[in-house]
Design goal:
transport; ATP-binding; 6-stranded mixed β-sheet; binds adenosine-5'-triphosphate; nucleotide-binding; alpha/beta; 309 residues; ABC_transporter-like_ATP-bd; AAA+_ATPase
């Protein structure tokens, strides 16, 4: 279990983390979400004891991580890929770390197999691709068979096969009753992996809820309609508070009305419908809605350098 209590971190004038409290429970995968610069990495670094909090506390399995007698067996963490001695082979890296906690060659070779690095185990990790470095980082996190794992962007650089593999691995770890805490900007992947979410924006907790609840509370529900009379239906549905978009001929995506309202309006006008479906919002839509006011870095699709007057 990870417990964070009124944790604050200031860098000069910047408050990176602003008195946040949350608990990461064992047995479920908890996702840590937030826009760029929200404070996720800073929080994880403080939990790991790599950054000293300005105030507040955090504990891993009941005590500050820095005080754990055998940290690698308490919590395995992946913060930055490739944070290893680049000249060393993957196997030697794991063996050297394993030696500090009584883990030998057998478990090292097993873990190399689990993360899919057996064939390159003797090669210098300096030549590893981003995804291979990530796999090695995950093997390192699992080395001490820890009760808790904390992973910052674990799917970063992984190919589709690797992403599926880590999703299943994390689910297995949680099913074994372990605490699993991970950050990711890949919303579709997080939606498939996590059961609980902690969302942070500008250093503050915006949500700490089960995934299903987080998505359900979004107002982004829409209705998808397919009709041979799409044009007439569109004119009928347009009213204040209703947005009607069309992504294909004969298809309308309606927000602001329920499917029964759309169906009744169509029936009253004698319009034929071929399909009428409620579309639940995605995690991405729910996340964008919640964090709209907490995004510090906005991009633009204008690559011309011209700005609107
Ligand atoms: N060592 C540091 N010195 C000064 N400011 C820092 C430092 N580390 C982080 N910050 C600032 O703290 C804030 C939170 O940064 P942090 O890296 O924790 O965010 P994040 O949620 O992990 O972002 P991202 O999604 O981009 O990785 C940002 O404004 C960042 O610029």
């Amino acid at each position: 279990m990870i417990e964070v209590h009124e944790l604050t971190k200031r860098y000069g004038d910047v408050t990176a983390v602003d008195s946040i409290s949350f608990t990461v429970q064992p047995g479920v995968i908890t996702g840590f979400l937030g826009p760029n610069g929200a404070g996720k990495s800073t929080t994880m670094r403080m939990i790991l004891g790599l950054d000293r909090p300005t105030s507040g506390t955090s504990t891993v399995n009941g005590r500050p991580y820095a005080e754990a007698p055998a940290p690698l067996t308490e919590m395995g963490a992946l913060l930055e890929a490739k944070a290893i001695d680049k000249g060393r082979s993957a196997r030697n890296h794991l063996l050297a770390l394993g030696a500090t906690i009584g883990v030998g060659a057998r478990r090292v070779d097993h873990l190399l197999d689990v993360v899919g690095l057996t064939e390159v185990a003797g090669k210098g990790a300096g030549g590893f691709s981003l995804g291979m470095g990530q796999r090695l980082g995950i093997a390192t996190a699992l080395l001490g068979d820890p009760q808790t794992v904390m992973l910052d962007e674990p799917v970063n650089g992984l190919d589709p096969d690797g992403i599926l593999w880590i999703r299943n691995l994390l689910k297995e770890l949680a099913a074994e009753g372990r605490t699993v805490f991970l950050s990711s900007h890949l919303m579709s992947e997080m939606e498939l992996t996590a059961e609980h979410l902690v969302v942070i924006g500008r250093g503050r907790i915006l949500a700490d809820v089960p995934m299903a609840e987080f998505i359900a509370q979004s107002s982004q529900n829409s209705v998808q309609v397919i009709s041979p009379d799409a044009g007439r239906l569109r004119d009928l549905l347009i009213q204040p508070g209703v947005v009607v978009a069309s992504s294909a001929p004969g298809r309308l995506d309606v927000t602001g009305l329920s499917s029964s309202q759309v169906g009744e309006l169509a029936a009253a006008a004698g319009l034929v419908l071929h399909q009428l479906v409620d579309v639940a919002p995605s995690l991405e839509e729910a996340f964008m809605e919640l964090t709209r006011d907490a995004v510090d870095y906005h991009g633009s699709t204008d690559t011309t350098g011209r700005t609107a007057a």
